[in-house]
Amino acid sequence: MQTQLLPVTPEALARAGALIRSGELVAFPTETVYGLGANALDGAAVKRIFEAKGRPGDNPLIAHISALEQLAPLIAVRPSPTARALMDACWPGPMTLIFPKSSLVPDEVTAGLTTVAVRFPAHPAARALIDAAGVPIAAPSANRSGRPSPTTAKHVLEDMDGRIPLILDGGACQVGLESTVIDMTGETPRVLRPGGITPKRIAEICGGVAVDEAVMRPLKEGEVARSPGMKYRHYAPAGALTIVKGEPGAVERAIRELYDESQASGKRPLILSLQGHIPAYGDRRVLSLGADEAEMARSIFARLRDADALGADAIFSEAVPADGLGLAVMNRLGRAAAFHIVEAEQH
Ligand code: TXA
Ligand code: MG
Q: Does the domain at residues 4-216 carry the CATH identifier 3.40.50.720?
């Protein structure tokens, strides 16, 4: 199959909408990451997403809508006042809500679960595509399973060339990390995956929030994941990634040592550093994560791909505090590193 890459024009959107309606896949930009979309009401079309990504069949997808009225047919309940408050405050935007599903949603979307995840994205191209298709669009991130999520159309092409007919190119994604996934089926909203909408913001809107404890650690042996996506190693670069935590001075010292040891043993190490700390690493090989959490969120997946392209086999990354947007950044980095974390002061 030939994969076309088109800028977002009315003609490209019309073609993309027609492809979705005919059961084909289209990759498209959102404000978080690029999605790989199919008609969410067509089980056979949705199955193709799993094939193109190599995604495990038990990991459910998010259904994307382009107007609030499109939510009701997909879910089996009326949204609670809490859910409505979240929707009013954060939709359209980088937030996904989980509700009991209606019979309209095929099992392929929810991987057999009785709940469905729904998101109303803010990106104009994503909304225009859903409008052009005239159906909700089921879409995971448009990477091959296990690879870092794509934040540019070029990343999508790296992973999907020859596997899908069309990629809509809308430039680089604004947020850079996937949406905040919130389970709305209990009393209190529960964050299953942190993202651009932080727990603090959710608590301000709803008066309370729970953060699933599996967010910042690996699942224990035999533990059942509330969100199936949590049990897979994710976002992983080919090289072994180590996160180094602590006071900046101690972190820089530990990373210099780890890098030098690694190089002495014949490896090709690489450092991922906040912009301001780069001079501390001298002439060692360093890539910048940007100046702060927001820039790190936007750049982290691209840097993990760069690490692969450079053939790095030992990657040492600085950390940021795991609060605010930093919680989402450290959740993704932690998973990419299979939670291999070194405390700089103890090194
Ligand atoms: O920002 C995003 O959310 C992007 C863009 C394309 O919208 N999409 C995305 O999809 O990240 P994906 O498939 O890579 O991640 C969806 C996550 C997975 O961790 C999955 O397990 C979880 O949401 N999920 C989906 N449906 C669920 C459900 N019914 N119950 C619990 N978790 C669910
Ligand atoms: Mg994904």
A: no
CA of 4 to the centre of ligand 1 (A): 26
Q: Residues enclosing ligand 1, CB less than 6 A?
A: 30, 32-33, 35, 59-62, 96, 98, 110, 113, 115-117, 119, 121, 139-141, 178-179, 181, 192-193, 227-229
Assess if CATH 3.40.50.2300 describes domain 240-346: no
pLDDT digits (tens, 9 = 90+) for 191-249: 999 999 999 999 999 999 999 988 888 777 777 777 776 666 667 888 999 999 999 99
What string of DSSP letters covers 276-326?
Answer: GGGGGGTTS-EEE--SSHHHHHHHHHHHHHHHHHTT-SEEEEE---SSTHH
Mutate to test the pocket of ligand 1, among 62, 110, 144 (most ligand atoms within 8 A of CB): 62
Task: Tell me if domain 4-216 and domain 240-346 are identical in fold.
Answer: no
